[in-house]
Amino acid sequence: MKTKAEQKKTDSLATFRAKPKPQAKRTVKNGKPSNELVFSAYTEGNDSVFPRILGLYVKPGSVVADVTYGKGVFWRDVPEGAYQLRATDLQDGIDCRKLPYKDNELDCVVFDPPYMHTPGGSAHTVHNQFEDHYRNNSTGNRTNSKYHEAVLELYIEGGKEAHRVLRNRGVFIVKCQDEVCANRQRFTHVEIMAAYEKMGFVAEDLFVIVRNNRPGVSRVVQQVHARKNHSYFLVFWKSNNGKQRWEPPQ
Ligand SMILES: C[S@@+](CC[C@H](N)C(=O)[O-])C[C@H]1O[C@@H](n2cnc3c(N)ncnc32)[C@H](O)[C@@H]1O
């Protein structure tokens, strides 16, 4: 038999247990939850993937310089006015290695230079369009190197200039493709990452774009390497301090 005091204690415990604490309201940081995610590989065109990368990494309204604008394919599906776009190209007389911007001025630089360099000839006819951009076949880039080294040189010099004009935490979006040059496998994206990290960029993301049509091929007696049907978008950001971590745009 419980005393009155013991019974009171039991009752109050039961009451306490019966009333669960109201659950704290679930709060979601940075807006509504969504399962519309951006993925790391697509079999879609640059014009469909590029806006997703911009959306993930660059705040709307940011000043973005596309320094190899070409025909502006990247921007086809980006709503007009979403960013303050500065579009330039060597064809309009602006070299990506000497940009008309002040130090630390821009929020984002987009860079898609010609990424193959071959001397032409039967095995390489599909690449001939890239030749116009290099000194040893034509004019324009005045690189000191040839072939793959010329490609890398342009990526490196363009990267240095992008680093100069970007603000701290500014985003650098780079398009590239690996290539086999003189029968040697050249993983351009790895070489670029190593060079850019030395300059003070942090490599933050990598997107693979798989062609959904067959790349041009010439007949070969014995195939040595896989014929490439993919390219990359690499995302870097400028870090003035090695301890910083990437923070998504709010
Ligand atoms: C692969 S295309 C870029 C395509 C572009 N992203 C688009 O969406 O249409 C390469 C471009 O780089 C430009 N280019 C080559 N060398 C350059 C340089 N040194 N400075 C600036 N642009 C350059 C070429 O004129 C060409 O338009």
Distance between the termini: 64 Å
* Helical residue percent band: 10-25%
- What's the Cα radius of gyration? 26 Å
> How large is the count of helical segments?
5
The coarse silhouette is globular
SSE order, one letter for each helix or strand: HEHEEEHHEEEHEE
Contiguous uncertain segments of 5+ residues: 12-18, 120-139
Strand arrangement within the widest β-sheet reads 1-8-9-5-4-2-3
Strand content: 15-25%
Instruction: Report the major sheet.
Output: 7 strands, mixed
Number of E-state strands: 9
Can you offer a commentary on this structure?
The protein is of the alpha/beta class. Helices cover 25% and strands 21% of the residues. The strands form 2 sheets. It has a 7-stranded mixed sheet with strand order 1-8-9-5-4-2-3. Strands 6-7 form a two-stranded antiparallel ribbon. Strand 6 (179-181) and strand 7 form a beta hairpin. The longest helix has 19 residues, at 147-165. The radius of gyration is 26 Å and the shape is globular. S-adenosylmethionine (SAM) binds next to loops.
Annotation keywords:
250 residues; alpha/beta; seven-stranded mixed sheet; two-stranded antiparallel ribbon; 9 strands; 25% helix; globular; binds S-adenosylmethionine
